[in-house]
């Protein structure tokens, strides 16, 4: 499929994702939020981040294959995401996935979950950060639930491993897999091309 001109320039899309990371980093620095990063070796971070992202993607993909309301309610969102993935070159998509993984995890797990962990119970921090994560990814109620579920998985992984880098890798690789599969194999998701 030939790429169409993006509705949002690649510079703006990359700048937006980078901006999320800057906001997260500034919040961490301004509020003195302790960021956990020493739980695992770099090799373990990469191994578990890639394995976690692949497993998470398989589970979410299987959910989209279930007949009924879930699949029907995701159809238009998957078509939108397919169009988005086709608008940009592969280097831009990889950069977007990396920036999203780093930036969104700095904000949602590092800053928000980290701050809430200081002031509430870990479970409250994980759930609240995950709901906020789902809200900013809102395309429909069903998509909100899936994004919140992904946020819960990432939040628990962060709490258990004390590794913000792990969830950054997990999130970034997950986004890369999702963009690749939606662009390369849209029929897997019932997306009609052409």
Structural summary, described in words:
The protein is mainly alpha-helical and 194 residues long. The protein has one domain. The protein contains 7 helices and no strands. The chain has helices at 10-30, 42-65, 69-87, 90-119, 122-136, 141-161, 164-184. Helix 1 (10-30) packs parallel to helix 4 and helix 2 packs across helix 7 (164-184). The longest helix is centred in the middle third of the chain and has 30 residues, at 90-119. The protein is globular, with a radius of gyration of 17 Å. The model has no long low-confidence stretch (mean pLDDT 91).
What's the main sheet like?
A: none
Structural class: mainly alpha
Residues in helix, %: over 70%
Q: Report low-confidence residues grouped into runs of 5 or more.
A: none
Straight-line N-to-C gap: 8 Å
Report the β-strand fraction as a percent range.
under 5%
Q: Topology as H/E string?
A: HHHHHHH
Output the radius of gyration: 17 Å
Number of helices: 7
| Strand count | 0
Compute the number of structural domains: 1
Determine the mean pLDDT.
91
- Choose one word for the global shape: globular
């Amino acid at each position: 499929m030939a790429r169409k001109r993006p509705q949002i320039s690649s510079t703006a899309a990359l700048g937006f994702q980078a901006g999320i990371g800057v906001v997260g980093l500034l919040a961490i620095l301004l509020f003195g939020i302790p960021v956990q990063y020493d739980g695992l070796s770099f090799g373990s971070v990469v191994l578990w981040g890639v394995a976690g992202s692949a497993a998470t993607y398989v589970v979410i993909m299987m959910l989209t294959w279930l007949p009924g309301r879930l699949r029907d309610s995701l159809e238009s969102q998957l078509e939108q995401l397919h169009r988005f993935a086709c608008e940009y070159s592969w280097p831009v998509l990889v950069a977007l996935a990396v920036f999203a993984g780093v930036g969104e995890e700095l904000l949602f797990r590092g800053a928000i979950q980290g701050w809430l962990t200081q002031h509430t119970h870990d479970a409250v921090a994980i759930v609240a950060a995950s709901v906020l994560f789902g809200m900013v990814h809102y395309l429909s109620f069903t998509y909100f639930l899936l994004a919140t579920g992904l946020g819960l998985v990432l939040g628990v992984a962060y709490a258990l491993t004390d590794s913000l880098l792990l969830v950054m890798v997990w999130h970034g690789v997950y986004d890369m897999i999702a963009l690749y599969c939606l662009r390369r194999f849209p029929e897997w998701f019932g997306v009609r091309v052409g």
